[in-house]
Design brief:
heterodimer; A: mainly beta; globular; B: alpha/beta; 13-stranded parallel sheet; 7 helices; 36% helix
């Protein structure tokens, strides 16, 4: 796997930017800017403002999310913050509190 | 811990400006600026650029590191590696072709010598063996010869900042007279490394 993985015992406090997929199993605080997809896995904890193309949340996200394509909140995920994206999917079982803006 | 083989990879197009800490191996193919604090191994691959102070157990530098590395076990700069900064670690490996500018501090030069030659330490570095081996050995040295260690200490330290060649003949007899078996190895090793570093660096 050549893509980027933040493992479950890793804590990052700061800023992540990049042009490739990012998988978060650990903790990231600060800011994330990606041109590809972001996957917050079930062990992942993100306290950050996020700008990305796609985001798939199975873990915890606190912060505002802006996606140019799609935001997907899987079941079992917890998300607090505002979402701005043309496509937003919230699965049965997902917890979410915040504003949704699909730019309608 | 879900997986037994835990590893974090920072991909080639990723830039992290942050304080990063963790208890697993970290492979950097991209760029990290800030600080890195790990209880395991950081591996800076050839495409990796790290501008950070690192506190880790092991560091393997095949890419570029600008900053200081403090390692509880070892620091290795491979032939593709480039590093500017200071290294503090009991084991420092700089191979031919590596480029390095900075100071090396292997800590208390008496302690690691007592545990024997380097290959043994390298092989057993991942088990508990070197710790067990090192501690009794250290004790033996202290009991057998309480005076030599303080005498031996200044010798290698002096030889380092001075020109390597003139210092060598002066220190060697002094150390041998004191009959600390491992100290000459220390002096030789340091000198060798210095020479390699200077050739490549300038």
């Amino acid at each position: 796997m050549a893509n980027t993985v933040i493992g479950s015992s890793i804590v990052i406090d700061g800023e992540i930017t990049g042009d490739e997929d990012l998988v978060i199993q650990g903790t990231v605080k600060g800011k994330i800017q990606l041109k590809e997809s972001l996957y917050v896995e079930s062990s992942g904890v993100v306290e950050a403002d996020i700008e990305t193309q796609n985001i798939e949340v199975s873990g915890q996200v606190t912060g505002n999310v802006t996606a140019s394509d799609k935001v997907e909140l899987k079941s079992e995920c917890r998300m607090v913050g505002d979402i701005k994206a043309p496509r937003i999917l919230i699965a049965d079982g997902a917890s979410f509190k915040g504003n949704v803006d699909m730019d309608v | 811990m879900v997986d037994t083989v835990q590893s974090t990879i920072i991909g080639p197009s990723i830039v992290i400006r942050a304080n990063l800490q963790g208890d697993e191996d970290l492979t950097v193919l991209g760029r990290v600026e800030g600080t890195i604090n790990l209880t395991k191994t950081v591996n800076v691959a050839e495409s990796g650029v790290v501008k950070a102070d690192l506190t880790v157990r092991n560091a393997i530098v095949s890419g570029v590191v600008v900053g200081n590395i403090t390692a509880s076990d070892s620091v290795e700069i491979t032939e593709a590696g480039r590093m500017v900064g200071d290294i503090r670690a009991p084991r420092v490996i700089i191979v031919d072709g590596a480029r390095f500018r900075g100071t090396v501090d292997m800590g208390d030069l008496d302690a690691p010598r007592a545990s024997g030659p380097l290959p043994a330490r390298t092989v057993s570095s991942r088990s508990a063996a070197p710790i067990k081996g090192a501690l009794p050995a250290r004790g033996e040295v202290a009991k057998a010869k309480p005076l030599p260690p303080p005498m031996a200490r200044p010798a290698p330290v002096k030889s380092a900042p001075l020109a390597a060649k003139p210092a060598a003949p002066a220190t060697k007899p002094a150390v041998e007279a004191v009959t600390v078996p491992a100290a000459p190895i220390a002096a030789k090793k340091k000198i060798k490394k210095k020479v390699v570093v200077k050739k490549k660096g300038e």
